[in-house]
Design goal:
The chain is an alpha+beta fold and 185 residues long. It has 2 domains: 102 residues, Ribosome-recycling factor (Topoisomerase I, Chain A, domain 4), CATH 1.10.132; 68 residues, Gyrase A, domain 2 (2-Layer Sandwich). It has 5 helices and 6 strands. The strands form 2 sheets. It has a 4-stranded antiparallel sheet. The termini are far apart. 24% of the residues are buried.
């Protein structure tokens, strides 16, 4: 019973780390990635659709992303969606594809992006702590229902704290690596 709680605790905390990594992928580093446009949705015949589903999205070089729609009429729609998304660049429509030219990042921009990354890291830590609280509540309920003794409850809560510390360290490690990636020129 307690082992199930440990397993669900680890699984839930792993999900918060994965969610943070997914959020990190949308942040810009020194080299552009197509992940920057992952959250942009264009109106595809009345349905908000991700750009990757309606166009070829590729990073041409370290500062350029090219978006070539499968259907030519989608050019204007995609261009409008990118402008509304406000990702820091204006789309250039050449009649065939939309090109996004990202200027080299300034020190201030890098600092702002590091702040965003730290906020994402803090969100992941809060999520891990919420999981810890839920798991501890389950253990306390087992103790209250006399399914386990006081000593077992204390041991279980200590183990849950160790799991939490392990995941907080993993979050910090991932954040530090992302920070270094953002600040690297």
């Amino acid at each position: 019973m307690i082992n199930e709680i440990y397993t669900t605790t680890k699984t839930a905390m792993e999900k918060s780390v994965e969610a943070m990594k997914r959020e990190f992928s949308t942040l810009r580093t020194g080299k552009v990635t197509t992940n920057i446009v992952d959250n942009i949705k264009a109106d595809y015949y009345g349905t908000p659709t991700g750009l990757a589903q309606i166009a070829s999205v590729i990073a041409v070089d370290a500062t350029t992303i090219s978006i070539t729609p499968w259907e030519k009429p989608m050019l204007k729609v995609i261009e409008k969606a990118i402008q509304e998304a406000n990702i820091g660049v204006n789309p250039n429509n050449d009649g065939i594809a939309i090109k996004l030219f990202f200027p080299p990042m300034t020190v201030d921009q890098r600092g702002d992006i590091v702040k965003q990354a730290k906020t994402m890291g803090e969100k992941a830590k809060v999520a891990a702590r919420n999981v810890r609280k839920d798991s501890n509540d389950k253990v306390k309920k087992l103790e209250k229902d006399k399914a386990i003794g006081e000593d077992e409850s204390k041991k279980a809560q200590d183990q849950i704290q160790k799991i939490t510390d392990e995941f907080i360290a993993k979050i910090d490690e991932t954040l530090k690596a992302k920070e270094a990636d953002i600040l690297k020129v």
